[in-house]
Design brief:
Distance between the termini of chain A: 37 Å
Strand content of chain A: over 45%
Structural class of chain B: mainly beta
Order of helices and strands of chain B: EEEEEEEEEEE
Number of strands of chain B: 11
Helix content of chain B: under 10%
Number of helices of chain A: 0
Number of helices of chain B: 0
Largest sheet of chain B: 6 strands, mixed
Shape of chain B: globular
Structural class of chain A: mainly beta
Oligomer: heterodimer
Largest sheet of chain A: 7 strands, mixed
Radius of gyration of chain B: 14 Å
Largest interface: A-B, 23 and 24 residues
Helix content of chain A: under 10%
Distance between the termini of chain B: 37 Å
Chain lengths: 116, 112
């Protein structure tokens, strides 16, 4: 079974540019999560989709971040315009069940974003 | 105070040693608890879930003390391959919006 995949693996952009990250969850997983780890800090929750609906987006830093999951399959996370403090590793995770509290989340390899 | 706190380490131990990691969490209503392992520049991977009754998986034993809001991970007979960062992870459940909370991780180096 294919795992969670993320694209691109690395992205280097200039401040003010736009970047779109993509996550393909494990097939059939309803729950999809985005997380971010900035240098020296712990992994932080950004948002949670259940199928195509945003269940919780309280972790999104500001309105420069937009996540979508059209059709309930893959998801994109767009940063526009990017700022220096957006640099970090963006992880996507998915899990299969309706009730997410007890279940395992499977993580993708992450996208390393560097904003110059 | 952080919601999930861990000793950052690093822990430097010889092969065969027993090492214990601790974690505390602030939300007493938290529902689910996990230990994840993260290798350098890799994604986190689930090591084990943590139950109130305690659970064991080979050389790894996890314990949860809800009264003290404390989670532990014990690794026996350490192997070189156990070198990694160990993340304490807490899910607050419905009351906390299911937002998974990660500790900053504890680094372990196992030496030959």
């Amino acid at each position: 079974e294919a795992g969670v995949t993320q694209f691109p693996s690395h992205s280097v952009i200039e401040k003010g540019q736009t970047v779109t990250l993509r996550c393909d969850p494990i097939s059939g997983h309803d729950n999809l999560y985005w997380y971010r780890r900035v240098m020296g800090k712990e992994i932080k929750f950004l948002l949670h989709f259940v199928k195509e609906s945003k269940q919780d987006e309280s972790g999104m830093p500001n309105n420069r971040f937009l996540a979508e999951r059209t059709g309930g399959t893959y998801s994109t996370l767009k940063v526009q315009p990017a700022e220096l403090e957006d640099s970090g590793v963006y992880f996507c995770a998915s899990s299969p069940y309706r009730q997410p509290t007890q279940e395992t989340q499977y993580f993708g390899p992450g996208t390393r974003l560097l904003v110059l | 105070r952080k919601e999930v706190e861990q000793d950052p380490g690093p822990f430097n131990v010889p092969e065969g040693a027993t090492v214990a990691f601790n974690c505390t969490y602030s939300n007493s209503a938290s529902q689910s608890f996990f230990w994840y392992r993260q290798d350098c520049r890799k994604e986190p991977k689930l090591l084990m879930s943590v139950y109130s009754s305690g659970n064991e998986d080979g050389r790894f034993t996890a314990q949860l003390n809800r009264a003290s809001q404390y989670i532990s991970l014990l690794i026996r007979d350490s192997k070189l391959s156990d070198s990694a960062t160990y993340l304490c992870v807490v899910n607050p459940g419905e009351g906390g919006g299911f937002k998974t909370i990660f500790g900053a991780g504890t680094r372990l180096f196992v030496k030959a």
